[in-house]
Amino acid sequence: MLLTVATTHQPATDLGFLLHKHPDRVQRFEQSFGTATVFYPEATQERCAVALMLDVDPVRLARSRGKGSPDFSLAQYVNDRPYAASSLLAVAMAQVFSTARSGRCASRQDLADSPIPLEVNIPVLPCRGGPSIAHRLFEPLGWAVEAQPIPLDDAFPEWGSSRYVRLRITGTVRLADTLNQLHVLLPALDESKHYWQGADEVDKLLRSGEAWLPNHPERDLITRRYLGRAGALRRVALARLAELGDDLDEVVEPAQDEEVRQPDDQRLPLNVQRHDAVHQVLLDAGVQSVIDLGCGSGQFLDRLVKTGVFTRVAGSDVSARSVQYAAARVRLEQMSERQAGRVQLFQSALTYEDDRFAGFDAAVLMEVVEHVDPSRLEALERVVWGVARPGLVVVTTPNSECNALYEGLTGMRHPDHRFEWTRSEFADWSERVAAAYGYTVEHRGIGQVDETFGAPTQMGIFTREAGRDD
Protein backbone atom coordinates (compact mmCIF):
# COMPACT_ATOMS: atom_id res chain seq x y z
CA MET A 1 0.00 0.00 0.00
CA LEU A 2 1.22 3.49 -0.74
CA LEU A 3 0.15 6.98 0.34
CA THR A 4 1.98 10.23 -0.45
CA VAL A 5 1.49 13.72 0.97
CA ALA A 6 3.15 16.65 -0.78
CA THR A 7 3.29 20.40 -0.22
CA THR A 8 4.46 23.43 -2.17
CA HIS A 9 4.57 25.63 0.94
CA GLN A 10 8.01 27.21 0.97
CA PRO A 11 10.37 26.13 2.28
CA ALA A 12 8.67 22.85 1.42
CA THR A 13 11.13 20.80 3.46
CA ASP A 14 9.44 22.16 6.59
CA LEU A 15 7.12 19.20 6.01
CA GLY A 16 9.81 17.13 7.71
CA PHE A 17 9.49 19.23 10.87
CA LEU A 18 5.69 18.89 10.89
CA LEU A 19 5.87 15.11 10.47
CA HIS A 20 8.84 14.69 12.82
CA LYS A 21 10.53 12.61 10.10
CA HIS A 22 13.77 13.88 8.50
CA PRO A 23 13.70 14.06 4.66
CA ASP A 24 17.22 12.60 4.41
CA ARG A 25 16.33 9.40 6.25
CA VAL A 26 14.43 6.22 5.42
CA GLN A 27 12.65 4.95 8.53
CA ARG A 28 10.92 1.64 9.15
CA PHE A 29 8.27 0.91 11.75
CA GLU A 30 7.20 -2.62 12.61
CA GLN A 31 3.48 -3.27 12.84
CA SER A 32 1.67 -6.39 14.03
CA PHE A 33 0.64 -7.02 10.42
CA GLY A 34 3.72 -5.86 8.48
CA THR A 35 6.28 -3.08 8.08
CA ALA A 36 5.64 0.62 7.47
CA THR A 37 8.37 2.58 5.68
CA VAL A 38 8.57 6.38 5.53
CA PHE A 39 10.72 8.09 2.90
CA TYR A 40 10.77 11.29 0.83
CA PRO A 41 10.72 10.83 -2.97
CA GLU A 42 10.94 14.64 -3.31
CA ALA A 43 12.61 17.11 -0.95
CA THR A 44 13.36 20.53 -2.43
CA GLN A 45 12.63 24.05 -1.23
CA GLU A 46 9.83 24.30 -3.82
CA ARG A 47 8.12 20.93 -3.31
CA CYS A 48 8.42 18.18 -0.74
CA ALA A 49 6.60 14.84 -0.69
CA VAL A 50 6.56 12.13 1.96
CA ALA A 51 5.58 8.55 1.19
CA LEU A 52 4.19 5.97 3.58
CA MET A 53 4.54 2.45 2.20
CA LEU A 54 3.00 -0.46 4.09
CA ASP A 55 4.21 -3.97 3.33
CA VAL A 56 1.65 -6.41 4.73
CA ASP A 57 2.70 -9.87 5.83
CA PRO A 58 -0.39 -12.07 5.21
CA VAL A 59 0.78 -14.70 7.69
CA ARG A 60 1.28 -12.16 10.48
CA LEU A 61 -2.03 -10.55 9.58
CA ALA A 62 -3.86 -13.89 9.76
CA ARG A 63 -2.30 -14.71 13.12
CA SER A 64 -3.28 -11.32 14.57
CA ARG A 65 -6.95 -11.57 13.61
CA GLY A 66 -9.58 -11.82 16.31
CA LYS A 67 -11.63 -14.93 16.87
CA GLY A 68 -14.75 -13.29 15.46
CA SER A 69 -13.11 -12.23 12.19
CA PRO A 70 -15.21 -13.06 9.14
CA ASP A 71 -12.32 -14.09 6.88
CA PHE A 72 -11.30 -17.73 6.86
CA SER A 73 -9.54 -20.32 4.73
CA LEU A 74 -7.47 -18.97 1.80
CA ALA A 75 -9.12 -15.56 2.05
CA GLN A 76 -6.78 -14.82 4.93
CA TYR A 77 -3.75 -15.20 2.64
CA VAL A 78 -5.02 -14.35 -0.85
CA ASN A 79 -6.60 -10.87 -0.82
CA ASP A 80 -6.02 -7.24 -1.77
CA ARG A 81 -4.38 -6.23 1.50
CA PRO A 82 -0.80 -5.98 0.13
CA TYR A 83 -1.64 -3.23 -2.38
CA ALA A 84 -5.03 -1.62 -1.63
CA ALA A 85 -5.14 1.17 0.96
CA SER A 86 -7.39 0.19 3.83
CA SER A 87 -7.91 0.37 7.59
CA LEU A 88 -4.46 -1.21 7.98
CA LEU A 89 -2.84 1.75 6.23
CA ALA A 90 -4.90 4.09 8.40
CA VAL A 91 -3.65 2.33 11.54
CA ALA A 92 -0.02 2.48 10.40
CA MET A 93 -0.35 6.16 9.46
CA ALA A 94 -1.92 7.00 12.82
CA GLN A 95 0.94 5.35 14.69
CA VAL A 96 3.83 6.56 12.53
CA PHE A 97 2.58 10.17 12.43
CA SER A 98 1.02 10.29 15.90
CA THR A 99 2.73 13.51 16.98
CA ALA A 100 1.86 15.24 13.69
CA ARG A 101 -1.79 14.20 14.15
CA SER A 102 -1.83 15.96 17.52
CA GLY A 103 -0.82 19.23 15.86
CA ARG A 104 2.30 19.64 17.99
CA CYS A 105 5.56 20.94 16.50
CA ALA A 106 7.83 22.79 18.91
CA SER A 107 10.11 24.16 16.19
CA ARG A 108 7.32 25.20 13.77
CA GLN A 109 4.17 25.53 15.87
CA ASP A 110 2.85 28.49 13.87
CA LEU A 111 3.12 26.39 10.72
CA ALA A 112 1.47 23.39 12.41
CA ASP A 113 -1.46 25.65 13.32
CA SER A 114 -1.80 27.01 9.77
CA PRO A 115 -3.45 25.59 6.65
CA ILE A 116 -0.87 24.86 3.95
CA PRO A 117 -1.23 23.68 0.33
CA LEU A 118 -1.30 19.87 0.33
CA GLU A 119 -1.70 17.11 -2.23
CA VAL A 120 -2.54 13.55 -1.17
CA ASN A 121 -2.23 10.63 -3.59
CA ILE A 122 -3.36 7.04 -3.07
CA PRO A 123 -2.79 4.84 -6.16
CA VAL A 124 -5.19 2.05 -5.17
CA LEU A 125 -8.05 2.65 -2.76
CA PRO A 126 -11.14 0.45 -2.24
CA CYS A 127 -14.15 2.75 -2.67
CA ARG A 128 -17.42 0.95 -2.16
CA GLY A 129 -20.10 2.98 -3.89
CA GLY A 130 -17.81 4.36 -6.59
CA PRO A 131 -15.98 7.68 -7.04
CA SER A 132 -19.04 9.70 -5.97
CA ILE A 133 -18.56 8.48 -2.40
CA ALA A 134 -15.04 9.92 -2.33
CA HIS A 135 -16.41 13.26 -3.49
CA ARG A 136 -19.15 13.19 -0.82
CA LEU A 137 -16.68 12.49 1.98
CA PHE A 138 -13.75 14.76 1.07
CA GLU A 139 -15.28 17.79 -0.68
CA PRO A 140 -17.17 19.14 2.38
CA LEU A 141 -13.79 19.33 4.11
CA GLY A 142 -12.43 21.73 1.51
CA TRP A 143 -10.65 19.26 -0.78
CA ALA A 144 -10.68 19.21 -4.58
CA VAL A 145 -11.18 15.53 -5.41
CA GLU A 146 -10.06 13.40 -8.35
CA ALA A 147 -11.23 9.79 -8.03
CA GLN A 148 -10.50 7.77 -11.16
CA PRO A 149 -12.02 4.27 -11.28
CA ILE A 150 -9.52 1.50 -12.00
CA PRO A 151 -10.60 -0.97 -14.73
CA LEU A 152 -10.97 -4.63 -13.86
CA ASP A 153 -8.62 -5.41 -16.74
CA ASP A 154 -7.07 -2.91 -19.17
CA ALA A 155 -7.16 -5.58 -21.87
CA PHE A 156 -10.91 -6.03 -21.52
CA PRO A 157 -12.54 -2.60 -21.08
CA GLU A 158 -15.96 -4.15 -21.58
CA TRP A 159 -15.62 -5.75 -18.15
CA GLY A 160 -16.02 -2.30 -16.61
CA SER A 161 -14.49 -0.79 -13.51
CA SER A 162 -13.33 -2.47 -10.32
CA ARG A 163 -14.29 -1.28 -6.85
CA TYR A 164 -10.93 0.52 -6.62
CA VAL A 165 -10.11 4.14 -7.44
CA ARG A 166 -6.98 6.17 -7.90
CA LEU A 167 -7.47 9.05 -5.46
CA ARG A 168 -5.89 12.51 -5.58
CA ILE A 169 -7.07 15.31 -3.30
CA THR A 170 -5.68 18.85 -3.15
CA GLY A 171 -6.45 21.69 -0.80
CA THR A 172 -5.17 24.18 1.74
CA VAL A 173 -5.63 22.36 5.02
CA ARG A 174 -3.78 21.93 8.32
CA LEU A 175 -1.55 18.86 8.16
CA ALA A 176 -2.90 17.52 11.48
CA ASP A 177 -6.46 17.80 10.16
CA THR A 178 -5.45 16.04 6.95
CA LEU A 179 -3.97 13.05 8.78
CA ASN A 180 -6.95 12.75 11.13
CA GLN A 181 -9.38 12.92 8.23
CA LEU A 182 -7.50 10.18 6.38
CA HIS A 183 -7.42 8.06 9.53
CA VAL A 184 -11.24 7.99 9.54
CA LEU A 185 -12.10 8.22 5.85
CA LEU A 186 -9.80 5.50 4.46
CA PRO A 187 -11.64 2.71 6.32
CA ALA A 188 -14.97 4.48 5.71
CA LEU A 189 -14.38 4.36 1.95
CA ASP A 190 -13.42 0.70 2.16
CA GLU A 191 -16.37 0.05 4.52
CA SER A 192 -14.41 -2.69 6.22
CA LYS A 193 -12.05 -3.17 9.15
CA HIS A 194 -9.22 -5.67 8.93
CA TYR A 195 -8.51 -5.93 12.62
CA TRP A 196 -10.50 -6.74 15.72
CA GLN A 197 -12.58 -3.78 16.93
CA GLY A 198 -12.59 -3.18 20.66
CA ALA A 199 -14.67 -0.90 22.86
CA ASP A 200 -12.11 1.89 22.37
CA GLU A 201 -12.95 2.11 18.65
CA VAL A 202 -15.49 4.86 19.30
CA ASP A 203 -12.87 6.86 21.22
CA LYS A 204 -10.51 6.55 18.25
CA LEU A 205 -13.21 7.85 15.93
CA LEU A 206 -14.01 10.81 18.18
CA ARG A 207 -10.36 11.71 18.74
CA SER A 208 -9.66 11.82 15.00
CA GLY A 209 -13.01 13.32 14.02
CA GLU A 210 -13.75 15.76 16.82
CA ALA A 211 -12.65 18.88 14.88
CA TRP A 212 -14.60 18.09 11.69
CA LEU A 213 -16.89 15.06 11.91
CA PRO A 214 -19.76 16.55 14.00
CA ASN A 215 -20.38 19.19 11.31
CA HIS A 216 -19.82 16.94 8.29
CA PRO A 217 -22.99 16.52 6.17
CA GLU A 218 -22.21 12.79 5.83
CA ARG A 219 -21.50 12.30 9.52
CA ASP A 220 -23.86 9.35 9.98
CA LEU A 221 -22.66 7.63 6.81
CA ILE A 222 -19.02 8.00 7.82
CA THR A 223 -19.70 6.71 11.32
CA ARG A 224 -21.60 3.66 10.10
CA ARG A 225 -19.00 2.76 7.50
CA TYR A 226 -16.03 3.40 9.80
CA LEU A 227 -17.44 1.08 12.46
CA GLY A 228 -18.51 -1.56 9.94
CA ARG A 229 -20.60 -4.36 11.35
CA ALA A 230 -20.36 -3.21 14.97
CA GLY A 231 -23.93 -2.01 15.40
CA ALA A 232 -23.64 -1.39 19.14
CA LEU A 233 -20.55 0.76 18.62
CA ARG A 234 -22.32 2.73 15.89
CA ARG A 235 -25.18 3.61 18.24
CA VAL A 236 -22.75 4.75 20.92
CA ALA A 237 -20.72 6.82 18.45
CA LEU A 238 -23.74 8.57 16.95
CA ALA A 239 -25.16 9.29 20.39
CA ARG A 240 -21.89 10.76 21.64
CA LEU A 241 -21.52 12.88 18.51
CA ALA A 242 -25.04 14.20 19.07
CA GLU A 243 -24.28 14.88 22.72
CA LEU A 244 -21.29 17.09 21.92
CA GLY A 245 -23.68 19.92 21.17
CA ASP A 246 -21.51 21.01 18.24
CA ASP A 247 -23.12 18.74 15.71
CA LEU A 248 -25.35 19.45 12.73
CA ASP A 249 -28.80 20.92 13.06
CA GLU A 250 -30.13 17.57 11.85
CA VAL A 251 -30.55 14.97 14.57
CA VAL A 252 -29.82 11.27 14.50
CA GLU A 253 -32.46 8.60 14.14
CA PRO A 254 -34.25 7.95 17.45
CA ALA A 255 -32.98 4.37 17.61
CA GLN A 256 -29.43 5.67 17.35
CA ASP A 257 -29.82 8.33 20.02
CA GLU A 258 -28.35 7.86 23.46
CA GLU A 259 -31.85 7.79 25.00
CA VAL A 260 -32.20 4.17 23.91
CA ARG A 261 -34.20 3.27 27.02
CA GLN A 262 -36.92 5.85 26.40
CA PRO A 263 -40.34 4.93 24.98
CA ASP A 264 -40.47 5.48 21.22
CA ASP A 265 -42.87 8.42 21.52
CA GLN A 266 -40.60 10.23 24.01
CA ARG A 267 -37.20 9.85 22.37
CA LEU A 268 -35.45 13.10 21.49
CA PRO A 269 -31.69 13.62 21.09
CA LEU A 270 -30.16 14.69 24.37
CA ASN A 271 -28.44 17.78 22.98
CA VAL A 272 -31.83 19.02 21.69
CA GLN A 273 -33.40 18.45 25.12
CA ARG A 274 -30.45 20.22 26.72
CA HIS A 275 -30.81 23.24 24.43
CA ASP A 276 -34.56 23.38 25.07
CA ALA A 277 -34.10 23.23 28.84
CA VAL A 278 -31.42 25.92 29.06
CA HIS A 279 -33.25 28.17 26.61
CA GLN A 280 -36.42 27.93 28.70
CA VAL A 281 -34.50 28.78 31.91
CA LEU A 282 -33.19 31.95 30.25
CA LEU A 283 -36.65 32.93 29.00
CA ASP A 284 -38.26 32.29 32.39
CA ALA A 285 -35.61 34.44 34.08
CA GLY A 286 -36.40 37.36 31.77
CA VAL A 287 -32.74 38.07 30.95
CA GLN A 288 -31.83 40.30 28.03
CA SER A 289 -28.10 39.67 27.59
CA VAL A 290 -26.50 36.20 27.48
CA ILE A 291 -22.96 34.91 26.97
CA ASP A 292 -22.36 31.30 25.89
CA LEU A 293 -19.07 30.32 27.54
CA GLY A 294 -17.49 27.45 25.59
CA CYS A 295 -19.83 27.97 22.64
CA GLY A 296 -18.12 25.39 20.38
CA SER A 297 -19.28 25.65 16.80
CA GLY A 298 -22.26 27.75 17.84
CA GLN A 299 -25.38 25.59 17.67
CA PHE A 300 -26.88 26.95 20.88
CA LEU A 301 -25.44 30.38 20.16
CA ASP A 302 -27.39 30.41 16.89
CA ARG A 303 -30.57 29.76 18.85
CA LEU A 304 -29.78 32.65 21.18
CA VAL A 305 -29.18 34.99 18.24
CA LYS A 306 -32.52 34.00 16.71
CA THR A 307 -34.37 34.78 19.97
CA GLY A 308 -35.40 38.42 19.70
CA VAL A 309 -35.81 39.06 23.44
CA PHE A 310 -32.05 38.66 23.88
CA THR A 311 -30.82 42.10 22.89
CA ARG A 312 -27.14 41.24 23.42
CA VAL A 313 -25.57 37.84 22.73
CA ALA A 314 -21.94 36.74 22.99
CA GLY A 315 -20.04 33.51 22.52
CA SER A 316 -16.49 32.56 23.45
CA ASP A 317 -14.41 29.44 23.10
CA VAL A 318 -10.79 28.47 23.70
CA SER A 319 -10.61 27.11 20.13
CA ALA A 320 -10.14 29.73 17.40
CA ARG A 321 -11.49 27.29 14.81
CA SER A 322 -14.66 26.76 16.84
CA VAL A 323 -15.18 30.52 16.96
CA GLN A 324 -14.82 30.62 13.17
CA TYR A 325 -17.38 27.83 12.83
CA ALA A 326 -19.73 29.67 15.19
CA ALA A 327 -19.42 32.89 13.16
CA ALA A 328 -20.27 30.95 10.00
CA ARG A 329 -23.22 29.20 11.67
CA VAL A 330 -24.83 32.45 12.86
CA ARG A 331 -23.96 34.06 9.48
CA LEU A 332 -22.24 36.95 11.19
CA GLU A 333 -20.76 38.35 7.97
CA GLN A 334 -24.20 38.41 6.32
CA MET A 335 -25.88 40.37 9.12
CA SER A 336 -26.78 43.99 8.79
CA GLU A 337 -24.73 46.45 10.84
CA ARG A 338 -27.56 46.75 13.36
CA GLN A 339 -27.97 42.98 13.71
CA ALA A 340 -24.25 42.39 14.04
CA GLY A 341 -24.09 45.04 16.75
CA ARG A 342 -25.92 42.75 19.20
CA VAL A 343 -23.60 39.76 18.60
CA GLN A 344 -20.03 39.35 19.85
CA LEU A 345 -17.71 36.36 19.23
CA PHE A 346 -14.21 35.98 20.60
CA GLN A 347 -11.54 33.46 21.57
CA SER A 348 -10.70 33.18 25.25
CA ALA A 349 -9.95 30.64 27.99
CA LEU A 350 -12.30 30.38 30.96
CA THR A 351 -9.44 29.86 33.39
CA TYR A 352 -8.10 33.40 32.81
CA GLU A 353 -9.79 36.71 33.58
CA ASP A 354 -11.22 38.51 30.57
CA ASP A 355 -13.15 41.77 30.77
CA ARG A 356 -15.32 40.61 27.87
CA PHE A 357 -16.93 37.96 30.10
CA ALA A 358 -18.50 40.62 32.32
CA GLY A 359 -21.64 42.73 31.95
CA PHE A 360 -24.16 40.01 30.99
CA ASP A 361 -27.42 39.13 32.71
CA ALA A 362 -26.75 35.41 32.23
CA ALA A 363 -23.93 33.03 31.35
CA VAL A 364 -24.26 29.49 30.00
CA LEU A 365 -21.67 26.72 30.47
CA MET A 366 -23.22 23.85 28.55
CA GLU A 367 -21.13 20.64 28.73
CA VAL A 368 -18.01 22.70 29.49
CA VAL A 369 -16.77 22.11 33.04
CA GLU A 370 -16.01 18.42 32.44
CA HIS A 371 -13.46 19.44 29.78
CA VAL A 372 -11.43 21.41 32.36
CA ASP A 373 -8.63 19.77 34.32
CA PRO A 374 -9.73 19.40 37.97
CA SER A 375 -6.70 21.41 39.08
CA ARG A 376 -7.97 24.36 36.98
CA LEU A 377 -11.60 24.28 38.15
CA GLU A 378 -10.98 26.79 40.93
CA ALA A 379 -9.61 29.24 38.36
CA LEU A 380 -12.77 28.82 36.24
CA GLU A 381 -14.97 29.32 39.31
CA ARG A 382 -13.17 32.54 40.22
CA VAL A 383 -13.35 33.89 36.64
CA VAL A 384 -17.06 33.15 36.11
CA TRP A 385 -18.66 33.52 39.55
CA GLY A 386 -16.09 35.75 41.22
CA VAL A 387 -15.11 38.24 38.48
CA ALA A 388 -17.67 38.15 35.63
CA ARG A 389 -20.53 37.69 38.15
CA PRO A 390 -23.62 37.48 35.90
CA GLY A 391 -26.95 37.48 37.67
CA LEU A 392 -27.68 33.96 36.38
CA VAL A 393 -25.31 31.09 35.54
CA VAL A 394 -26.61 27.88 33.95
CA VAL A 395 -24.32 24.83 34.01
CA THR A 396 -24.99 21.43 32.42
CA THR A 397 -22.76 18.39 32.73
CA PRO A 398 -23.13 14.60 32.27
CA ASN A 399 -24.49 12.44 35.05
CA SER A 400 -21.87 9.67 35.17
CA GLU A 401 -24.29 7.29 36.89
CA CYS A 402 -26.25 7.00 33.63
CA ASN A 403 -23.17 5.76 31.77
CA ALA A 404 -24.22 2.26 32.86
CA LEU A 405 -27.19 2.59 30.47
CA TYR A 406 -25.03 3.27 27.40
CA GLU A 407 -24.64 0.07 25.41
CA GLY A 408 -20.96 -0.59 24.67
CA LEU A 409 -19.66 2.45 26.59
CA THR A 410 -16.48 2.00 28.60
CA GLY A 411 -15.00 4.93 30.49
CA MET A 412 -16.39 8.40 29.94
CA ARG A 413 -18.75 9.70 27.25
CA HIS A 414 -16.09 11.66 25.39
CA PRO A 415 -12.30 11.15 25.20
CA ASP A 416 -11.66 14.81 26.10
CA HIS A 417 -13.64 14.67 29.36
CA ARG A 418 -11.32 15.12 32.33
CA PHE A 419 -13.96 13.84 34.73
CA GLU A 420 -17.69 13.11 34.97
CA TRP A 421 -19.66 13.69 38.17
CA THR A 422 -22.31 11.66 39.90
CA ARG A 423 -25.37 13.57 41.07
CA SER A 424 -24.02 13.91 44.60
CA GLU A 425 -20.60 15.05 43.34
CA PHE A 426 -22.19 17.73 41.15
CA ALA A 427 -24.43 18.85 44.02
CA ASP A 428 -21.45 19.15 46.38
CA TRP A 429 -19.43 21.15 43.84
CA SER A 430 -22.23 23.50 42.83
CA GLU A 431 -23.32 24.18 46.40
CA ARG A 432 -19.73 24.96 47.40
CA VAL A 433 -19.35 27.38 44.49
CA ALA A 434 -22.68 29.05 45.23
CA ALA A 435 -21.83 29.54 48.90
CA ALA A 436 -18.36 30.88 48.12
CA TYR A 437 -19.52 33.55 45.65
CA GLY A 438 -22.93 34.60 46.95
CA TYR A 439 -25.29 32.56 44.77
CA THR A 440 -28.11 30.11 45.37
CA VAL A 441 -28.33 27.00 43.19
CA GLU A 442 -31.20 24.84 41.97
CA HIS A 443 -30.61 21.36 40.51
CA ARG A 444 -32.61 19.82 37.67
CA GLY A 445 -32.25 16.80 35.39
CA ILE A 446 -32.42 16.79 31.59
CA GLY A 447 -33.49 13.74 29.57
CA GLN A 448 -35.44 10.62 30.37
CA VAL A 449 -35.17 9.84 34.08
CA ASP A 450 -34.12 6.35 35.13
CA GLU A 451 -35.46 5.22 38.50
CA THR A 452 -32.01 4.12 39.65
CA PHE A 453 -29.55 6.42 37.89
CA GLY A 454 -31.53 9.62 37.33
CA ALA A 455 -31.39 11.81 34.22
CA PRO A 456 -28.43 11.58 31.78
CA THR A 457 -27.66 15.32 32.03
CA GLN A 458 -27.68 17.35 35.22
CA MET A 459 -28.24 21.11 35.32
CA GLY A 460 -27.36 23.67 37.95
CA ILE A 461 -29.10 27.07 37.91
CA PHE A 462 -27.09 29.62 39.91
CA THR A 463 -28.83 32.87 40.88
CA ARG A 464 -26.85 35.70 42.44
CA GLU A 465 -28.20 36.70 45.83
CA ALA A 466 -29.65 40.19 46.20
CA GLY A 467 -27.13 42.67 47.50
CA ARG A 468 -24.16 40.50 46.44
CA ASP A 469 -23.02 42.47 43.39
CA ASP A 470 -19.44 42.88 44.54
Automatic annotation (TrEMBL):
Source species, domain of life:
Bacteria
Query: Keyword set for this entry?
Result: Magnesium, Metal-binding, Methyltransferase, RNA-binding, RNA-mediated gene silencing, S-adenosyl-L-methionine, Transferase
Query: Could you cite one Gene Ontology molecular function of this protein?
Result: metal ion binding
Query: Could you say which cofactors this protein requires?
Result: Mg(2+)
Residue ranges constituting the Hen1 N-terminal domain according to the UniProt record? 1-242
Q: Name one GO biological process term.
A: regulatory ncRNA-mediated gene silencing
Catalysed reaction(s) here are: small RNA 3'-end nucleotide + S-adenosyl-L-methionine = small RNA 3'-end 2'-O-methylnucleotide + S-adenosyl-L-homocysteine + H(+)
What Gene3D superfamilies does UniProt report for this protein, alphabetically? Hen1, N-terminal domain (3.30.1610.20), Vaccinia Virus protein VP39 (3.40.50.150)
The EC designation for this entry is 2.1.1.386
InterPro entries recorded for this chain? 3'-RNA_MeTfrase_Hen1_bac, Hen1, Hen1_N, Hen1_N_sf, SAM-dependent_MTases_sf
Q: What class of enzyme is it?
A: transferase
Q: Cite the NCBIfam families for this sequence.
A: bacter_Hen1 (TIGR04074)
Similarity remark: Belongs to the methyltransferase superfamily. HEN1 family.
User: What protein is this chain from?
Assistant: Small RNA 2'-O-methyltransferase
Q: Which species is listed as the source?
A: Ornithinimicrobium pratense
Organism placement in taxonomy: Bacteria, Bacillati, Actinomycetota, Actinomycetes, Micrococcales
